[in-house]
Amino acid sequence: MTTLKTTLLVIAKEPRPGRVKTRLTPPFSPEQAAALAEASLADTLDAVAAASAARRVLVLDGSPGPWLPSGFDVVPQCGGGLDARLADAFAGCTGPALLIGMDTPQVTPALLTVDFADCDAYFGPAEDGGFWALGLADPDPGLLRGVPMSAPQTGAVQRRRLVAAGLRVRDLPLLRDVDTAADAAAVAALVPHGRFAARLARCSAQRGTERR
C-alpha cells in the first residue's frame, strides 16, 4: 500500500470564540483564542493539502470558512464523545487512513507521507500523553471506541489497543499540541514563518497594548 491510496483526515471544530482553545483564555480573550485556533487549523490544512493522498477529508464540528483550502471533502462530526467521533471518522473510509487534529500547526507534509507496506498502524504520540496522529491500514472503528480521551493515559491506552489487536505499529515523532499559552509559544518557535506564529505575535502585541 502506498501513500497515494491513503485518505488524510483532519478532525476539527469551527474556530468560533468560546468554542475552541478555551485553555488559552486567559491570558488571551475568547476572540484571540479563536483566531489562534483558526491559524493553527489553516497551517494544518495547508500541510495536508501539500501531502500525497488519495483523498483529503475535514471532519468538522461547525461550518467551513475562508480558511478551508480547495481539495477537501467536508463531512460533519457525529455526536457523542471524542472516541465515538474519531471512530466515526475512520468508519467513513474504505481504505488506509491517517487522522490528525487541528492542534499541531508544526506538522509537515513529510510527516503525513505514510506507507502501510510494512506496518498496519501509525501512532503519533503527543507530549501531553495523548496522540496527534493515528493511521490504520484497515480502518476499524472498534479500535477507538471506549478509549478514554483527553487524559494523561490516552495515548498509552490507544497504542496498547493497537498492539493487542495484533497490529504492527510504527511510531511517528513526538509532537506538542497547542492547548495552553506556553504550548502556543513553544510551537510557534518551531514554525516561525507560519500563520500560527504570525497570529500569536499579533495577539501578544494586542495584549501588551491593552495592559498599558
Short description:
The termini are far apart.
Arithmetic mean pLDDT: 95
Number of E-type strands: 7
Q: Helix proportion of residues, in percent?
A: 25-40%
CATH class: Alpha Beta
Order of strands across the widest beta sheet? 3-2-1-4-6-5-7
Terminal-residue CA separation: 58 Å
* Integer count of domains: 1
Q: Please, could you describe this protein's structure?
A:
This protein is of the alpha/beta class and about 210 residues long. It has a single domain, classed as Spore Coat Polysaccharide Biosynthesis Protein SpsA, Chain A, CATH 3.90.550. Helix content is about 35%, strand content about 15%. It has five helices and seven strands. It has helices spanning about 30-50, 80-90, 155-165, 180-190, 195-210, and strands at about 5-15, 55-60, 75, 95-100, 120-125, 130-135, 170. Strand 1 (about 5-15), helix 1 (about 30-50) and strand 2 form a beta-alpha-beta unit. Helix 1 (about 30-50) runs antiparallel to helix 5 (about 195-210) and helix 4 (about 180-190) crosses helix 5. The longest helix has 21 residues, at about 30-50. The radius of gyration is 17 Å and the shape is globular. The model has no long low-confidence stretch (mean pLDDT about 95).
